Amino acid sequence: MSLVLSAMLLASAAQCTPEHAAMGHCKMPTAAKPKATTPKAAAKPKPAARPKPAARPKPAAKAPARPAQRSAPPSRADAAPAAAPVDPSCPPEHAAMGHCRPEASAPQQAAPPAAAAPAAAAASDPDCPPEHAAMGHCTPRATAPAAAPASMGTVGTALPAGNAPAPAAPEANYADRVWGRDAMAPARTALRREHGGMSYSQLMLNLAEVQFRDGRDGYRWDGEFWYGGDINRLTIKSEGEGTFRENTEGEVQALYSRAVGPYFNLQAGVRQDFGPGPDRTYATVGFEGLAPYWFDVEGALFLSDKGDVFGRLEGYYDQRITQRLVLQPRVELNLSAQDVPSSGLGSGLTDAEAGLRLRYEIKREFAPYVGVYWERRLGDTARYARAAGEGTGGFSVVAGVRAWF
Amino acid sequence: MTRTIDRRQLLRGATLTGGGLALAACMPAWAQSVSAGIVKPLPTVSGEDITLRIAHQMMMIDGRESHAIGINGTVPAPLIRLREGQNVRLHVENALDEDSSIHWHGLILPFHMDGVPGVSFPGIKPRSTFTYEFPIVQSGTYWYHSHSGLQEQLGHYGPIVIDPKGVDPIQSDREHVIVLSDHSQMHPHIIFKKLKQQGGYFNFQKQTLAGLLAGKDQSAKERLEWGAMRMDPTDVADVTGSTYTYLVNGHGPRDNWTGLFRPGERVRLRIINASAMTTFNFRIPGLKMTVVQADGLPVRPVAVDEMQIAVAETYDVIVQPADERAYTIVGESVDRSGMARATLAPREGMAAAVPPLRRRPLADMKDMGMGGMDHGSGGSMAGMDHSAMGPAKPAGAAAPACPPEHAAMGHCKPAGDAATGGGQQGAMDHGSGGMDHSMRDFSVAPEVKKTPTVQTISPMPVDRMGEPGQGLEDVGHKVLVYTDLMAVDRNPDVRAPDRSMRIHLTGNMERYMWAFDGEKLSEVRKPIPFLKDERVRVTLVNDTMMGHPIHLHGHFFELVTGHGEFAPRKHTIQVQPGGTATFDVTTDAVGDWAFHCHMLYHMHAGMMQVVSVRPRDGDTK
């Protein structure tokens, strides 16, 4: 590389491409004139620029410390030394590549001669020459910007950016100097809380319905409540069903829910069954989220206090027919890893249900619906049911309300 | 001496409103239903001592009463009229039961007077008074608003007009201040909660099956492709006309605020978008508008028919209505779910036809950050199966004799790979990455943290500062674009930037999370550091499908739009969906400054960071 560099440095002006000049590898012959005028113009900002207060404003209220006064920069040109003292062990191009760190405390800058820009402009986007784009410093514009008059528009934003290192980040506590840490610390805490750190909640009853079927009308619910921030939440789920004048059976889950991606939450906790069967308790782990094509999906594994393992998958899709009329197909599958005769469950797929519900969103939060519902016990589970004289499923007509708060 | 009289009048006014009688009749003159325009020597509040009282009040909008937070009994808050070169002391009484604050949007002042609780000062406690004091070092149209909680949405905003020291170079026969805003009967905390619960809560312009059957919007194929990515092309605005009434100077469309003119006059309109969430497409059918000022600073005149005004931007335009007739001022919400409407008329009581709302735009591939894939066929997913990598990524494995960093600097040429063509060609190579992968490929955005806040990353964002804004591509008349703007005065700092940086605007519409670089302010530990008088080129990359008005406190920055040292200087810049915008900034104001998206609920969700500017002498503590 040093060979290449030496060659560059020895090269004549014809070989000094704007890009190299911009990196400080060489000097372009035309650079002298604009270079001389640039700092002069910069040192005298026009009145429309930020005029500096002649006197420091009196601190309002009872500012104890000296407010940080915005004094005029001694000279803007000084701040950007075109020929900064170069650490011989660390020439700018090495520093720029991150090969080394220059000794000087001020950030090194590859201050390019002003003339470099127009020459580069001919080649490509003046603000984003290919080599900068390639380094990820910028993205070239697809369309060339409106051409500026020839007499102007050649410095300032027309110049390519250097690659000085960013300074280290301090604590954002400068206001402590004026108002004191005691006053600022609670305000900073509140600032963070109020900009992304808050907690919310939602109670959603996706299903709350009456089911009409031959002689055995029943009801069914399926809902969820969550409380928490964007990432960590407490989630309570419940679902169940019953027939009028008979027992209700259902379950409640209490879960810790954590966002693991833009769309999905991982959930873990406990589930408690209630109803006529054995009141089992389970450890639960599952997921919930939005799958591609806008499917709301949910899945969980349950380990009972008897050591039995069960699984569940459910999903639904909201098909918007109009802005307020929504058709929701929904399926739920329950699985068992083993036969559990006491619960009437056979191994494999124990039951499946499917529903098609048409709701009207009077408000987003309140949508009455009607629909059809089909459920079916399967395999050995169906056999157990038949042996017990129970039905194995069938169709219902349903009417209910989807509501949330 | 007139100053003294002004002050007395002001104090009397403050006493009256302080009595708790917050009547709609207390509207400042410029905001009353029929305005004769600002008569220059009679500003609403002015002088060196100004008293402002923040309090709850009721306000009437389209004949309906609403709760609001106003200042001195009015919404918008009174016009503060100042003169360049003066000092001002603003005594702000907080009559609320919660903390409040006032941020002077666009004013150059010491950082501890900037009014952001937790960044520049502790805030104004309930039932206490805080005095801001600073010199006025600039002129132009600005505004002020609360930086506490969501008070801004409730009406805590008002205009500032600063007259130049000498003769105003922008001459006009009269002027009107046009404060655009959005108002909801729903409390802002409820609005935010609804968004958290259901990101599309306020969108009643979604694609439907009925629409598909009627041949509207996307084709079935496109809907499937967008559905596969879980992206909704109708997601143009988060909070819409379904809950908002759009206001001009505090008045609804039916109130029809009217500004008067005499035919042939040069009328200067000082337009301020003081909305919480609404990007306005602004036009006055029948009148050319000549833009003369942007964000308070003069620009070379540009004649336009329409302009998109992002939240927190201000524009001054000159109109010359020649006819003895009324003209409708139209501020259409970017998603076309409603409009702010007012009238310019020679006499009170006149009105012109109000144009119907135009069809809402649909986001396209460019809005998804695939502007670089120009071979996609108009909104279809033709380009989607490429492993989309940014032009920044070096292509392929390089020959050992020519490592990428050398090649990138032009020291050598990798065999068979032209330096210029290489990046683009590589970017277009077909890869194994699927659609989903390419819309969230962190390798094109190394700055971004891999968090649930990041729903998508624009695979090939392009600079969109030369574009008129979402939905204004094909309106058939001249629409202002950023590249039209050119400063009248040479920029004060024309150095080349010392360095450059990229900041990604990231979000997740499903969880309603918003952040810079994937980290909400609540998660960020350190500020974005700058040294005093550093000059830095900042490229904002919008990784979302929604425009974001990004505001840097305490500084003006120069847009990198090809105008060299005559770059327009702004304090707020709209970054179009899936695109980029670049500015150069000289960080000449020591202190800590807020830097955020000016969509109020985006900021509240976390799309904000602190920018630190420290002296160079090592006193950084």
Strand element count of chain A: 13
* Multimeric organization: heterodimer
CATH class of one domain in chain B: Mainly Beta
- Structural class of chain B comes to mainly beta
From the N-terminal CA to the C-terminal CA of chain A, the straight-line distance is: 66 Å
CATH fold type of the largest domain in chain A: Porin
> Going by CATH, what is the homologous superfamily of the largest domain in chain A?
monomeric porin ompg
Straight-line distance between termini of chain B: 47 Å
Beta-strand percent range of chain A: 25-35%
- The CATH architecture of one domain in chain B comes to Sandwich
Find the structural class of chain A using helix and strand composition. alpha+beta
Count up the domains of chain A: 2
The CATH first-level class of the largest domain in chain A comes to Mainly Beta
Radius of gyration of chain B: 24 Å
Q: What is the helix content of chain A?
A: 10-25%
Largest sheet of chain B: 7 strands, mixed
Q: Identify the most extensive interface between protein chains.
A: A-B, 130 and 152 residues
Order of strands in the sheet with the most strands of chain A? 1-2-3-4-5-6-7-8-10-11-12-13
GO molecular function (chain B): copper ion binding; oxidoreductase activity
Keywords (chain B): Copper, Metal-binding, Oxidoreductase, Signal
Protein name (chain B): Copper-binding protein
Pfam families (chain B): Cu-oxidase, Cu-oxidase_2, Cu-oxidase_3
Keywords:
heterodimer, A: 405 residues, 2 domains, 13 strands, disordered N terminus, B: 621 residues, Immunoglobulin-like, seven-stranded mixed sheet, 8 helices, 33 strands
Gist?
The complex is a heterodimer of chains A (405) and B (621). Chain A has 405 residues and is of the alpha+beta class.
Textual characterization of the structure:
- Chain A is of the alpha+beta class.
- Chain A has 2 domains: 1-38 and 92-141 and 149-167, no CATH class; 202-404, monomeric porin ompg (Porin), CATH 2.40.160.40.
- Helix content of chain A is 18%, strand content 35%.
- The longest helix of chain A is centred in the middle third of the chain and has 13 residues, at 181-193.
- Chain B is mainly beta and 621 residues long.
- Helices cover 11% and strands 32% of the residues of chain B.
- Chain B contains 8 helices and 33 strands.
- In chain B, the strands form 6 sheets. In chain B, strands 22, 23, 24, 26, 28, 29 and 31 form a 7-stranded mixed sheet that branches. A 6-stranded mixed sheet of chain B has the order 1-13-21-20-15-18, with no helix packed on it.
- Chain B is globular.
- Mean pLDDT of chain B is 85; it is low at 1-26, 35-43 and 375-437.
- Chain B: Residues 1-31 form the signal peptide.
- Chain B: One of its GO terms (cellular component) is periplasmic space.
- Chain B: One of its GO terms (molecular function) is copper ion binding.
